[in-house]
């Protein structure tokens, strides 16, 4: 009978918390935000109801009747009981009674017209221009550019403005400044021309950098394996430096190396080559630098893992191959590489997922330039949701970009498991079967 080991569960509790709060929660929240229109303008918790000229044009494009549009545009100042009561409180009942007799239930489209009507008062004149402006504001019933805390308040104003009740729902939906559930983010991603460019940039970035990481990491590991122990330790330390250096410092070194005042430009100027920024001069230069920056970081990790795996290979196999006359290249091809399937699978899958979602080195080096030529999918999600040039951060659209990356990462992982024949690698040896 199995017993629950409470001590073991207690020791695993921190790991469970980490998985929940740092993995599951972000994934769930990303999916949640992806189907909303959350942005800086809507806020995260909720919003008010405000109809401005932009919203008016939007509902006009959606087919709102011309008569309703005219009412919304002209709904300005109305002499009603509410305004007269406020006028009586502020300017006296006699003034309110006289004004009701002169202009009761009248509608004025602008404050100027309203002030002119207030000048018609004879027995209870409002002489000060400032007072007339204050009195005019008491009768303001405009729907445009006014904020209402609740939907009921906004609908009440629409009723006061005699807006057709059949159009209220469309107006309220457009005026709501908070977030709503929507599928438009996904639809927008598949219709934006820039999405295809981001996808192609990501495909090129992942493909080139991953190839560099794995192949160069293998080359370093095999080369170091055949070096004397002390020499291999020195080279391993040198090639591992890109991994341990802070990204800001690492990219700063590359900028010093490639900028128009950097090492390359200064050195080439000695032979008559005009100085230029070798990182951002052209899109080709930018991609070469990005692949190298990320490539050396990934290759250093691959080198360490592959080196450890190579050292685990029984030396008897290598000695036997030497007796049979095998060269170093033949040893690498027929003995070392076939036994590195597990490390290669891990490095390939890990680096693929890392490259799909990481963008810090691109952000620090080119920031997607020149001209968005190096803007990858994850960087586009960051710019959309957290740091765009327009100022309106689109949390929902950025989350939709990120959610698609999660789906692509899962598909890539399953593909790798299939390609490397994962079932065969974890199967029991035949001698134990």
Task: Give a brief rundown of this model.
The chain has 433 residues and is an all-alpha fold. The protein contains 22 helices and four strands.
Task: Annotate the secondary structure layout.
Layout: H1 6-34, E1 49-50, H2 53-61, H3 66-74, E2 77-78, H4 81-91, H5 93-103, E3 107-108, H6 111-118, H7 129-137, E4 147-148, H8 151-160, H9 168-175, H10 184-189, H11 193-225, H12 229-244, H13 247-258, H14 263-269, H15 283-311, H16 315-323, H17 328-336, H18 341-357, H19 360-365, H20 377-385, H21 395-419, H22 422-426
Antiparallel strand pairs: 1-4, 2-3
Helix pairs in contact: 1-21, 2-9, 4-5, 6-7, 11-15, 11-18, 12-15, 15-18, 18-21, 20-21
The CATH superfamily of the largest domain is MetI-like
CATH architecture group name of the largest domain: Orthogonal Bundle
Strand order of the largest sheet: 1-4
Q: What's the overall geometry?
A: elongated
Spatial gap, N to C terminus: 26 Å
Instruction: Classify the helix fraction into a percent range.
Output: 55-70%
Judged by helices, strands and strand pairing, the structural class is mainly alpha
Taken in chain order, the helices and strands follow as HEHHEHHEHHEHHHHHHHHHHHHHHH
Total strands: 4
Query: For the residues shown, what is the average pLDDT?
Result: 86
The CATH topology of the largest domain is MetI-like fold
Strand content: under 5%
> How would you sum up the major sheet?
2 strands, antiparallel
Low-confidence regions: none
Number of domain modules = 2
CATH C-level class of the largest domain: Mainly Alpha
- Radius of gyration, rounded? 35 Å
- Determine the number of helices (DSSP H or I, runs of at least 4 residues): 22
């Amino acid at each position: 009978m199995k017993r629950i080991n409470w001590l073991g569960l207690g020791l695993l509790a921190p790991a469970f918390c980490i998985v929940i709060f740092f993995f599951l929660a972000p994934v769930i929240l990303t999916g949640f935000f992806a189907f909303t229109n959350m942005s800086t303008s809507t806020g995260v918790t909720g919003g008010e109801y405000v109809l401005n000229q932009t919203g008016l044009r939007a509902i006009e494009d959606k087919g709102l009747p011309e008569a309703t549009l005219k009412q919304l545009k002209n709904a300005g100042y109305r002499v009603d009981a509410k305004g007269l009561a406020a006028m009586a409180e502020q300017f006296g009942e006699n003034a309110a009674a006289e004004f009701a007799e002169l202009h009761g239930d009248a509608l004025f489209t602008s404050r100027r017209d309203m002030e002119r009507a207030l000048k018609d008062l004879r027995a209870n004149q409002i002489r000060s221009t400032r007072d007339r402006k204050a009195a005019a504001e008491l009768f303001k019933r405009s729907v445009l550019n006014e904020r209402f805390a609740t939907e009921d308040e906004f609908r009440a104003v629409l009723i006061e403005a005699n807006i057709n009740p059949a159009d209220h729902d469309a107006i309220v939906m457009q005026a709501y400044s908070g977030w709503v559930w929507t599928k438009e983010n996904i639809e927008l991603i598949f219709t934006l021309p820039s999405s295809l460019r981001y996808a192609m940039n990501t495909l090129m970035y992942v493909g080139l950098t991953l190839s560099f990481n794995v192949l160069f990491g293998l080359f370093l590991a095999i080369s170091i394996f055949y070096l004397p122990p002390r020499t291999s330790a020195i080279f391993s330390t040198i090639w591992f430096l890109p991994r341990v250096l802070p990204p800001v410092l690492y990219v700063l070194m590359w900028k010093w190396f490639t900028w128009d005042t950097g090492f390359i430009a200064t050195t080439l100027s000695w032979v008559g080559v005009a100085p230029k920024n070798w990182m951002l001069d052209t899109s080709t230069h930018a991609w070469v630098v990005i692949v190298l920056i990320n490539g050396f970081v990934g290759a250093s990790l691959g080198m360490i893992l592959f080196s450890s795996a190579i050292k685990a290979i029984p030396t008897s196999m290598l000695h036997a191959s030497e007796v049979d006359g095998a060269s170093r290249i033949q040893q690498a091809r027929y003995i070392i590489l076939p036994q590195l399937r597990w490390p290669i699978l891990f490095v390939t899958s890990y680096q693929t997922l890392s490259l799909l979602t990481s963008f810090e080195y691109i952000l620090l080096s080119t920031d997607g330039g020149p001209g968005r030529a190096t803007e990858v999918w994850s960087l586009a999600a960051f710019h959309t949701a957290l740091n765009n040039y327009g100022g309106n951060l689109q949390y929902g659209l950025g989350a939709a970009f990120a959610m698609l990356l999660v789906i692509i990462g899962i598909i890539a992982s399953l593909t790798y498991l299939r390609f490397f024949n994962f079932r065969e690698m974890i199967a029991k040896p035949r001698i134990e079967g």
